[in-house]
Amino acid sequence: MTTSQVSSETAESAGKTGQTAGMQCRLTITLPIALIALIACGPATITHAAEEEAAAPPPPPDICRSRDSSGNIVFSDQCGDRREEVELREATMFTPPDTRSKSARIAEVPHTPKFIPYWRLAITGPEAGENLRDNAGNVHISVRIEPGLQLGHRVQVLLDGKPVGPLSGGGIQLEKVDRGEHELRAVIVDAGGQSLQESAPSSFMLHRVSKLHGKAGR
Predict the structure, then answer these.
(1) H or E segment and range at residue 105
(2) Which range has the top average pLDDT, 36-50, 122-136, 201-215?
């Protein structure tokens, strides 16, 4: 072997040694990074997998069919050699329609009773065109209504367009009414004060003794 051949083999051996050292260096650098990634991600991945496994429902037990000593078919989860395994089908679930939502919507809508007009509503006292004499100005007013008052309704009496009252037992007693001609009217109002029906107007004349002349006023 010549001197040049020895030098060539020595250089080649040194090159392989350098490559091996470089590979070992790269492995030394790369390996800690992989370990760090495994340490960082490993516990979370393991924990997530454990949670999924715990959340999964347990598999259904095997159901087997056999016959007892009387020949009756018996189903059991204890499967022996003479028992035939039964394949269970997935149960069909039926959800009835929710009717409560419709009932709730109906209940939320306020129910307003339909107004039925009264076939009679009139001022019966004083009579239309009647002349009354009362120095204190007392006047008794009577109202007739048929049929009876509906739920939430009341009668409001108007004297010359102004409300007076309240009406009690179909009548109302007024005091200190001025002498002269007056007009009466009966009105049916609901709970909100809205006018629903009015009677025909009825007029009367009240006479009182004048203190100045000592005579009844006309």
Answers:
(1) helix 100-108
(2) 122-136
pLDDT value, residue 69: 76
**Euclidean distance between CA atoms 126 and 149, whole angstroms:** 22
CB contact burial 69-96 (16+ within 10 A = b; e otherwise): eeeeeeeeeebeeebeeeeeeeeeeeee
Q: Residue 206 in contact with residue 180, Cβ under 8 Å?
A: yes
Give the global pTM: 0.47
Tally Cβ neighbours within 10 Å of residue 204. Answer: 20
Q: Which CATH architecture has domain 120-207?
A: Sandwich (2.60)
Q: Where are the domains of the chain?
A: 1-56, 57-87, 120-207
Residue (of 111, 108, 112) closest to 194 by Cα position: 112
